[in-house]
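agent: user wants the structure for LysR family transcriptional regulator from Brevibacillus brevis. delegating to structure tool.
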Amino acid sequence: MDIRHLQYFLEVARHKSFTKAAQALYITQPTISKMVRNLEEEIGVELFERAGKRVSLTDAGWVLFSQAEVMVKSFESMTVHIGELMELKRGRLRIGLPPMVGASFFPHAIGRFCEQYPGIRLELFEAGSNKVEADVGSGMLDCGVVLLPPKDDTFDYYSFVNEDIMLVVPSSHAFAGRSEVRFRELDGERFLLFHEDFALHNRIVDECVRVGFHPHVVYKSSQWDFLSEMAAAHIGITLLPETICSELDAERFRIIPLVEPTLKWHLGMIWRKNAYQSFALREWIRFSQEFLSERSRSK
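agent: tool returned. relaying tokens verbatim.
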């Protein structure tokens, strides 16, 4: 049994699709299908129930899945240890970044890191905070940025920004002349929010419900600049962090503090607690925390 058989089997099980698993592994579908079929013939049982393009694990498949995860993780840990013992200091680092965060905080940090460690291959994945947290937890990502605090205690993290969420309205809006707006006054407004993959979406909705109303959400996006342009077109209001608001045109928008309550944008870099940390991950955590701390002090 080749370790690749198990790696390919796990990818198919996670994606519930041979096609998606092949895309994730950058191989052809016939190749991964053949590998899984060889594994089934070697073990002597079917591992997947095939129904069109969708597949699901059989009872035997579930047994192998739990054991294969342990074996593959042990193998990956062993190879990383050996590489570090040889002082290659090379590897791959998979980082999840929500769209708002990547452009605002990380380009210079990533550039400096790549210059200092050219042997480390960075792979950046753009997704909302909820998706990033789930993928770090499953091991698909090594680390990532999320809205703090994380949903459970399986992560270690450091914080690098904690600022207010602001109300963004067009300059002709009824709130435009206000110095502050109470949260409950947003009742009846049309909301432009991030998708549910973004933790900020749930935070805003939950806060609306807590103060006594359900928000009327008319549009959801993954891009803050599109949400702001929709607001400028009088389609609705949106709520964005101070850092993002500083990039908006003061002639077209009014940025207003929210009170009773305030809503925070508290971000941190998370990684799995008690899991083996490669050289690349350990150095990225140290480097990025130091870089972002210096950036914060220089403001």
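agent: one observation worth passing along. The mean pLDDT is 89.
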